[in-house]
C-alpha cells in the first residue's frame, strides 16, 4: 500500500462556525433571613427573569441556602465550576458578577501574551538560513 | 426543488396518544395480557387520573401527594421519559437554545434524539431512525466536500479525513463540547435533557466483527490482506468493517451513544426544518472544525511513488539535486534537496542526511500533487439551493498511483 491515512479528530474552533456559550448553568443561592441576601432577593425578583429570557442557553436554578451568604455558581462545559459570593451587594453589582460568570470560559484565568494565536500556518513562511543569497563575512 | 411536508412524518413523536398506543402495542406483543381485556387501551391509560379523583379526602396536600405518586408510578413503567416531560425540562430548553436549533424543531424531538436504542427498545421513542438519516446526511455532505475540494486525495486518506470529520470519536467530542451530560441509568423518571443509554458491561469486546454481519467473505480471517478497493465495496464510510447492530440486551459505549445522538440531531433538523437548515447546521458544526489534511498522509516509500507518478503522468523522471548544504563534515549537517522533473522543481526538503532530504523532497512533491484543490469548488448539493448557477462538472481525477 503506497500511502496510508492517519486517523485523527478534527479539532473544534468555537465561534468559527457556531458559537457555543461555555457557561451552561447558573445556580443562585440565597437566604430569606440574613440581611446579606437583601440585594440578592431583589435581584432574583426583579432582574433575573429578564436575564433568563435574554440567555436561554443557560440553565438557571434558584435555591435557598439558609443561614449562609448568597452565592452565584457557574457550571461550565469543560466541567469546571466558578462561584462568586455576593453578600451585601446591590442588584446592579450582582448583575455584573452574573455577567462575569456568564462570559467566563470556565478555564483558569490566563495571561495572553500575543495579540493573535492561530493554528494556521504563517503565510510568509519561516525564515531559512539555507535559502537566498550567501552573505560575505 | 419542492420541499416535502416532513413535519407530518415525525408526528408520532409529538402526540402523547401515539405514545400510549404504541406502548400498549408493545405490551400486547410482549406479554399478551391485554388480549384478555375488552377495555380499550387508550381509555385504561387515561383512567389513572380518574382514580386519583375518587380518593377525595378534601385535603389538597394529600391530593397533591397522591397525584405525584401516581405520576411517578406511570413514569417508572416507561424505559425513557414521557413526551410531556420534555416541555418542563430546563436542561433540554437550554440545549435547544445553545445549539441555535431552528424553532421548528420541537423540544420533544430533541428529547427523542437523546434516547439511545439501548435505553428504549421501542423504535417509536428512540433515536435509531433519526440517527440513520443523520448519519447518511453527515457522510454524504462530508464526502462531497472532500471529493470536490481535494479531488486527487488517495482513498485511504479520504477514509481518514471522513473519520476525522464525522467519525464516532469526533461526534463524541462534539457531544461534550455541546455540554450534554448523560444519565447513569436510563429510565422514565430521568431528566429528558440527559443522554440516556445502557452502558456496555466492562470486559465486552467492542471491536469484534462477526462473520454473520459483515458482508465481506472470510471476514473472520484476521491476518488476511484487505485491499483499499475491497474496502469501498464491503466496508463502511471510514474503511472499517461493518458491524451489525448490537444485540438488544447489550449496552453501548459512551462514544457510540454520543455519536448516535449527534447523528440523530442532524436527522431531526432535516426532518423538521428542512434541507437548508440541515446543511447550515453541518457547515457550522462539522465543516468549521479544523483539520489539516496534509497531516493525514503516511507514505512508506515516497521516492518510489513519485517515480511511478511521473511515469504515469508522462513527466520526465524525477531527479534529486542538492539545492544547498552546510556542515557536511560536521556533527549537524543540513542538506536541502530538490526533486526536479526536467526543469521543473516538484518539491524540496531539508534533512540531516542526503537520503533523508531526498525523502522529504519527494514527500513534498507528492503532497503537492495529491492536495491539489480547484479554485471555487462547488459541491453537487449546492444545486439544490434556490437560483443556483448552472452546474459545471467537478474535477474528477484518475486516482492515486498504484505501486
Question: What does this entry look like structurally?
Answer:
The complex is a heterodimer of chains A (137) and B (403). Chain A is α+β, with helices and mostly antiparallel strands and 137 residues long. Chain A has a domain at 23-103: Glutaredoxin, CATH 3.40.30.10. Chain A has three helices and five strands. Chain A has helices spanning 38-46, 48-54, 91-103, and strands spanning 3-5, 23-30, 59-64, 71-76, 81-85. Chain A has a four-stranded mixed β-sheet, with helices on one face. The longest helix of chain A has 13 residues, at 91-103. The model of chain A has no long low-confidence stretch (mean pLDDT 93). With 403 residues, chain B is mainly alpha-helical. Among the domains of chain B are: 83-203 and 227-294, Ribonuclease iii, N-terminal Endonuclease Domain, Chain A (Orthogonal Bundle), CATH 1.10.1520; 299-370, Double Stranded RNA Binding Domain. In chain B, 44% of the residues lie in helices and 7% in strands. Chain B is built from 14 helices and four strands. A three-stranded antiparallel β-sheet of chain B has the order 2-3-4, covered by helices on one side. The longest helix of chain B has 22 residues, at 128-149. The radius of gyration of chain B is 28 Å and the shape is elongated. Residues 1-53 of chain B have low confidence and may be disordered.
